[in-house]
Design goal:
Layout lengths: L1 H10 L13 E11 L4 E11 L2 E3 L2 E12 L2 E15 L2 E18 L6 E21 L10 E13 L3 E6 L12 E4 L5 E11 L1
Antiparallel strand pairs: 1-2, 1-11, 2-4, 3-4, 4-5, 5-6, 6-7, 7-8, 7-9, 8-11, 9-10
Length: 198
């Protein structure tokens, strides 16, 4: 029954495909919840994408995304494969590769240890996007608002980090650094975001 509704909605559309918004530029601001092996963290995300290629209901949109969290910076090259099921509904398969920079802090000892590390990282995910509006004149180019829900999996290569003591100014105690493996940035995630399409 659901499949018949989708077919009926598609066949009743009088507009020519692809629609203008399938080739738009989108600027997206979102929130990401990242689950890690022994913890979880929240990140803010900012992304921009452009869909230069589109045929019928399909479009490909390369882009850039930046994620910022507590001691975490990620920069990613992204690629979205989008499929427009209804005028107001779009499904996406998403992939991303880039870099991960982490500041690791260990406060479990006499004094805090801190170090920076970098590694390669990536995402694989699926998303559903709802066109919030405007819904009129769907076959003309104008600014439109999208709401996206995304779920997927993040991964990163293993990295070593050198932790050095963070002593107060004027402290003359002799201390040494510690080399260890950085916490592994890997696990499932969810993201919700609002985008403007131009």
């Amino acid at each position: 029954m659901i499949a018949l509704l989708f077919i009926a909605a598609a066949s009743s559309s009088p507009v020519t495909l692809p629609l203008p918004f399938q080739r738009d530029v989108r600027v997206e601001l979102g929130f990401k919840g990242q689950f890690l092996t022994q913890s979880s963290t929240a990140l803010g995300t900012l992304a921009v994408s452009w869909a230069p290629w589109s045929v019928s209901r399909f479009s490909l949109a390369p882009g850039l995304r930046y994620e910022l969290g507590d001691g975490i910076n990620r920069g990613l090259l992204t690629l979205d494969a989008r499929y427009r099921t209804l005028r107001w509904l779009e499904l996406s398969a998403r992939g991303a590769v880039g870099f991960l920079a982490q500041r690791i802090t260990d406060t479990g000892g006499t004094f805090a240890l801190q170090g920076d590390t970098a590694s390669a990282t990536g995402d694989l995910s699926g998303a559903v996007s709802f066109l919030l509006g405007p819904h009129r004149h769907i076959d003309t180019r104008r600014v439109r608002v999208w709401w996206t829900f995304e779920g997927g999996y993040s991964f990163a290569t293993t990295a070593r980090v050198v932790l050095t003591p963070q002593l107060p100014a004027g402290d003359t105690r002799q201390t040494g650094s510690v080399t260890t493996t950085a916490p592994h940035f890997q696990g499932a995630f969810f993201r919700t975001s609002i985008a403007l399409g131009f």
